[in-house]
# Entry
Amino acid sequence: MSRFSLSIAAFVVALLGGVIFVTTFERPPVLSTQGGFRGLSMGEVENPRTLPALLAANQAPEASEAADTTGPKAHEVYENVQVLRDLSEAQFNRIMLAMTEWIAPNQGCGYCHNVENMASDEVYTKVVARRMLQMTHKINSEWATHVGQTGVTCYTCHRGNAVPTMVWSTEPNSRAGLQAPRGQNHPAASVGLSSLPSDPFTPFLLGDQQIRNISTTSLPGRNSQNTMSTEWTYALMMHMSNSIGVNCTYCHNSRSFAEWAQSPPARTTAWYGIRMVRDINVSYIEPLKPLWVQNPNGPADGPHGPRLGALGDPLKANCTTCHQGLNRPLNGAPMLRDFPELKQVNQGPLRSADATPR
# Structure
């Protein structure tokens, strides 16, 4: 081979190497802030080149002027008001307008209502909305261990979309019992383009499989922790890391990942978050499956997008649904403070559409 040919070959190899390097590693600058004792590699990593765009994409909408809390109650003015019945008329109208902007800005009131008869329950999304309001109230009142006093609103997940964009459903190749799915070695975005199992949500955020990879015993026949369960656990951890835009040491002490006493407080917050999301999926989303089966593409004036996954299960929540790349959804905007109406949701059972109104 001539020297010219060798030079061309070397150039091609160098070019390919450069492409691989540039596309594989994050382009600097990257800033690291120490988050623990020196030598423990517990820094928080941020890229100032990409952070402004991420923050801009996670801005909460400006809150409207607070409503008068006095005057007649909503259920005294309007028919068939169930979960927001104790709001004042002004508060009720304010939160209805806000929900329209949060969920269906293009479709308007007709997305949940028959605009010729607003009291009617014939549009199924009105029934879903009631249940989602109850879910939001439960998150804010019973899961403060995760959401704190910041709380959540409909916008936290929906961001102006009838169906939140960051949702999941069980993959056809997944199997129950923490077994590796077929095609595991095909990198998936859900687990950071790694070759880990690409659906860690079904066992952990719908089921209650144990999240553990360190054995508590070495005795044969009693050790449920193996390579397979470790892969599933790491898949969930990769999802959580990408979802909130942090590295492993945001929640773990690199000296001892398993030791709770040496872990940052964020690990406890995440522990509650996993259980909160599981509660959302099991108690609120899965029970609404019959409505979504009857309306797989939304209300009749749609289509508005699919409501079911490939196996016919509802689209469900995971960490990305709310966080979308930030450790605090919407950069910590205190939306619950701005919308106290969401603190006054009736948690009682919903009446059927033909029940006596009011």
Summary: Strands lie at 31-33, 44-46. The domain at 66-158+335-358 is CATH 1.10.468.10 (Photosynthetic Reaction Center, subunit C; domain 2). Confidence is low (pLDDT under 50) at residues 176-180. DSSP finds 13 helices and two strands in the chain.
